[in-house]
Amino acid sequence: MPEPVLVAQNLCKTFISRGRRVTALDDVSLTIAPGETLGLVGASGSGKSTLARVLLRLLPADAGTVRLLGEDWLKLRGRALRARRRSIQMVFQDPLAAFNPRATIGGVLADPLRIHGLADRAARPARVGALLERVGLPASYAVRGVHEVSGGERQRVAIARALAARPSLIVFDEPVSALDQSIRGQILKLIADLQKSEGLSYVFIAHDLAVVRLVSHQVAIMESGRIVETGPTPQIIANPRSQTGRALVAAVPHLHRRNAP
Ligand SMILES: Nc1ncnc2c1ncn2[C@@H]1O[C@H](COP(=O)(O)OP(=O)(O)OP(=O)(O)O)[C@@H](O)[C@H]1O
Ligand SMILES: [Mg+2]
């Protein structure tokens, strides 16, 4: 078996909010294989985004380890941390919230090239144009403001910005939930196509299995900060073992009937 891109073990995270303890992550372990997608499904508040933020090091874990590309990721500091940061990128649900409203699309895409030293100033415009074309937008969009495009186009820009860093792993936190039904399919197809052409690994977060099953090789089901069930997507769909897993399968139309006895 090829070495996993990421291995998380025993991650824990507790928040104290207004005097109340909330266990957002309770001993979470997971593995992501190269070129594969782990779909992370669970109800609101089950800890999906907290897990994403801990994996990105946007939030410190209370306990646990993460190996990223063979390195002890949560322990990296200084230069080693800066060098490794580009390997794991995130795409958020709300394409507007992720951007400075006054930024141009070209500026948004040039930032990671500059920050990670991936292209000098002279080379950046061409790289920005190529990134836009890779996500199905015209290179001429570089001069537009981030507000001057549709929600679906903004999500394409967010994906291009993640790609700019040349990551090994992208964490998508409900990337199509805020989009019109009509363009969800296009964005999902883009995400799937990029995985194949770039050999990327993904974590794909959603509330239900309807979308996750279409894009995920493996599924992990979260409940109250724990992963209660995990396995290959067809196995979870055909034979969910946890109560939450059975409820999630039953909630997708046309899915559960096939599995009826
Ligand atoms: N910064 C914070 N301070 C206090 N509590 C928090 C914080 N962030 C998250 N939580 C709590 O941790 C738990 C997990 O939240 P999280 O956002 O990870 O859930 P989620 O599965 O992403 O939910 P959703 O599907 O609604 O996005 C929730 O009870 C939430 O209220
Ligand atoms: Mg969330």
Question: Would you mind describing this structure in some detail?
Answer:
By secondary structure, the protein is of the alpha/beta class. The chain contains 9 helices and 10 strands. The protein folds into 2 domains: 1-87 and 167-232, P-loop containing nucleotide triphosphate hydrolases (Rossmann fold); 103-166. The strands form 2 sheets. The chain has a 6-stranded mixed beta sheet with strand order 6-7-8-3-9-10, sandwiched between helices. It has a 4-stranded antiparallel beta sheet with strand order 2-1-4-5, with helices on one face. It is globular, with a radius of gyration of 19 Å. The two termini are 35 Å apart. The structure holds adenosine-5'-triphosphate (ATP) and magnesium ion (MG). Magnesium ion binds at residues 48-49, 173.
Q: Keywords, please?
A:
single chain, 261 residues, alpha/beta, 2 domains, 4-stranded antiparallel sheet, 35% helix, binds magnesium ion
Brief description of this entry?
This protein has 261 residues and is α/β, with parallel strands linked by helices.
| Biggest sheet, spatial arrangement of strands | 6-7-8-3-9-10
The global form is: globular
Note the main sheet.
6 strands, mixed
Pattern of helices and strands: EEEHEEHEHHHEHEHEEHH
Give the C-level CATH assignment of the largest domain: Alpha Beta
Named once each, the bound ligands are: adenosine-5'-triphosphate, magnesium ion
Strand content: 25-35%
The strand count comes to 10
CATH fold topology of the largest domain: Rossmann fold
Helix segment tally: 9
State the helical fraction: 25-40%
Which superfamily, in CATH terms, is the homologous superfamily of the largest domain? P-loop containing nucleotide triphosphate hydrolases
Q: How many distinct folded domains?
A: 2
Which structural category fits the helices and strands?
A: alpha/beta
Computed Rg? 19 Å
